[in-house]
């Protein structure tokens, strides 16, 4: 299907403030299932925009503002050819059908930190113990194990909209029993890494899954796990879905914090900030 994506972010301030450079990660990332046909990015007030690729190959825009303003609007538009199937079949290498399996040395080296738990964040033992609850025996089906974790997260965690910036640590999400999509994805990723899988964070857009969701689209965070033969497989534990059929990726990274859609600040007092609104509309 051909999708048109409109993403608008608006910041309002009590008085004109000096806007610092903003890092924008809002442009869809092409893959075998996705091709960007058109894209545009503009800001109000007008900004100088430069483009670069980060260490993960994500397309990053940096907007610099020559004038002060009491409002900042960032408008990203894209038209994409979305070919991801609703019910994908994964051609996993037979050597990886059964868990545990061993990545090839080249894969292990290239995955690097993506296959290592976050040892610097407290609570790793808690997450590891939680993840191992899903391992049903000394030898189990690899994809079934990952599906069980993907569908099992919501058994312990309640989804909630969270306006605070940043991502909760996986241990904190387990302790609170709730989190946003990025918190839930981070827990899944860390659990997969504790079990020896290569996993990465993904940010992008979610198509409307059902009439109860109301909005035709939204920004979203999910996970991908690398399995030999099949490559990177999308897991969306917030909706208990597998595959990219309803997902438009924008960026991949080790952690969510590396691929936040908009990062930037202003020079002024804390009370100068009034509000922020995000609106995403997607249509065929």
Architecture overview:
This protein has 284 residues and is α+β, with helices and mostly antiparallel strands. It has 2 domains: 2-83 and 260-283, Immunoglobulin-like (Sandwich), CATH 2.60.40; 94-258, C8orf32 fold, CATH 3.10.620.30. It contains 5 helices and 18 strands. It has helices spanning 105-111, 124-132, 142-156, 170-176, 181-194, and strands at 2-19, 22-24, 34-44, 48-53, 59-64, 69-82, 98-99, 140-141, 158-159, 178-179, 198-207, 217-227, 231-236, 241-242, 247-253, 262-263, 266-267, 273-283. Strands 1, 3, 6, 17 and 18 form a 5-stranded antiparallel β-sheet that branches. It has a 5-stranded antiparallel β-sheet with strand order 14-13-12-11-15, covered by helices on one side. Helix 2 packs across helix 5 (181-194) and helix 3 packs across helix 5.
Tell me the layout of helices and strands.
Blueprint: E1 2-19, E2 22-24, E3 34-44, E4 48-53, E5 59-64, E6 69-82, E7 98-99, H1 105-111, H2 124-132, E8 140-141, H3 142-156, E9 158-159, H4 170-176, E10 178-179, H5 181-194, E11 198-207, E12 217-227, E13 231-236, E14 241-242, E15 247-253, E16 262-263, E17 266-267, E18 273-283
Parallel strand pairs: 9-10
Antiparallel strand pairs: 1-6, 1-17, 1-18, 2-5, 2-16, 3-6, 4-5, 7-8, 11-12, 11-15, 12-13, 13-14
Helix pairs in contact: 2-5, 3-5, 4-5
Protein name: Transglutaminase
Domain Transglutaminase-like: 173-239
InterPro entries: Bac_transglu_N (IPR013589), Papain-like_cys_pep_sf (IPR038765), Transglutaminase-like (IPR002931)
Number of domains: 2
Low-confidence stretches: 209-214
CATH architecture of the largest domain: Roll
Ends distance: 7 Å
Q: Quick check: average pLDDT?
A: 94
> H/E order of the elements?
EEEEEEEHHEHEHEHEEEEEEEE
The total beta strand count reads 18
Strand count, sense and barrel status of the largest sheet are: 5 strands, antiparallel
Shape type = globular
**Helix-residue proportion:** 10-25%
Rg estimate, integer Å: 20 Å
CATH topology of the largest domain: C8orf32 fold
Query: How many helices in DSSP terms?
Result: 5
Report the portion of residues in β strands. 35-45%
Structural class: alpha+beta
CATH top level of the largest domain is Alpha Beta
